[in-house]
Amino acid sequence: MVSSRLATLSLGLVLAAAAPALAQQDKLIAKVDGITITEGDLKLAEEDLAERTAQMPEERKREELINYLVDLKLGAKTAAAAKIGDGPEFAKRLAYNRDKLLLDEYLTVEAKKAATPEAAKKLFDDTVKAMKPEEEVHARHILVPEEAQAKAALDRVKKGEDFAKVAAELSKDPGSGKEGGDLGWFAKDRMVPEFAEAAFKLEKGQVSEPVKSQFGWHVIKLEDKRSKPLPSFDEVKPQIDQYLVRKAQQDLIVALREKAKVERLDKPAAPATPAPAPVEPKKP
Predict the structure, then answer these.
(1) Which residue from 77, 101, 226, 235 could staple onto 231, CB 3.0 to 4.6 Å apart?
(2) The pTM is what?
């Protein structure tokens, strides 16, 4: 008896806690020919038209969605009166959309169970442990068309002129020239091979001999070296959650297929072969 009362009390507390949200969903916001439109309808429309309304200010978005729902209700009422929904083609389309909605909802609900904070943190920690430190350098350069110009620029630097000043005066690189040749931090694979090889061989403060690449002649100064800093968990958590959801959804579909008996009646029977392994979503 006590257990029964406790269960009833717990259910009552749950319903009481959910009541404000349910009331908000049922809040009436419009009527069209007596047909009601609620906040819940508005939320569904917002999900359906997310791409179209994403950039709209909130007030305009709300007006657009309500107008859409008014048109939807009027159109649906007229179509029902014309018995559009009574034909076999409509019934097929309705059944297809019902199946699609059921699957989407099932995958959404079940996949959320996989994207827990604990799972996300574990994936982050495991990925970080497996990553090899990547070296980056911070460099400046002077880019000129001819080797003789590069040698002249290098000579000025060797005689004591500030590298950044010479770069700002001579460099033909439209991106870094005005910034004193500053290229910021970069990994080796971000630059053309000739430039990268020369830059990564330098020690902090060293200046290279002229280096030729497809862009011209470079004189490079190495400002600093470091191991590339890893992103924080908070920075990549949205991508990790997305990966976990997609992976869980993929695993659910594979599991359903493995349990099912699928018969193809549109082609001759073929010997049973194992289904190819799905391509795992790329980890963030």
Answers:
(1) 235
(2) 0.54
- The letter for the amino acid at 25 is Q
Residue ranges with strand state E in the chain: 28-32, 35-38, 135-144, 182-187, 211-213, 216-227
Cβ-proximal residues to 227 (8 Å cutoff; 6+ apart), any chain = 133, 134, 135, 136
What pLDDT shows up at residue 279? 57
Domain spans of the chain, in order of start: 19-86, 87-132+234-260+277-284, 135-226
pLDDT for position 129: 81
Spatial CB neighbours of 169, under 8 Å, sequence gap ≥ 6: none
> Is the distance from CB of 63 to CB of 37 less than 8 angstroms?
no
What was the pLDDT predicted at 105?
92
Rounded to whole angstroms, the Cα distance separating 250 from 280 reads: 8
H-type alpha helices, 146-192: 147-158, 163-170
Query: What CA–CA distance (Å, rounded) separates 195 from 213?
Result: 7
Distance, in Å, from the CA atom of 251 to the CA atom of 253, rounded to the nearest integer, reads 5
The pLDDT value recorded for residue 231 is: 83
Q: Which helix (H) or strand (E) holds 24?
A: helix 2-26
Is the pLDDT confidence value at 44 over 80?
yes
Q: What is the pLDDT of residue 6?
A: 39
How far apart, in whole angstroms, are the C-alpha atoms of residue 131 and residue 242? Answer: 20
SS3 percent helix, strand, coil of the chain, rounded to 5, is: 60, 15, 25
Pair of tokens at residue 101: 């909605």
Q: What does the pLDDT read at residue 134?
A: 84
pLDDT tens-digit series, residues 14-36: 444 444 554 566 899 999 999 99
Name the CATH architecture for the domain at 135-226: Roll (3.10)
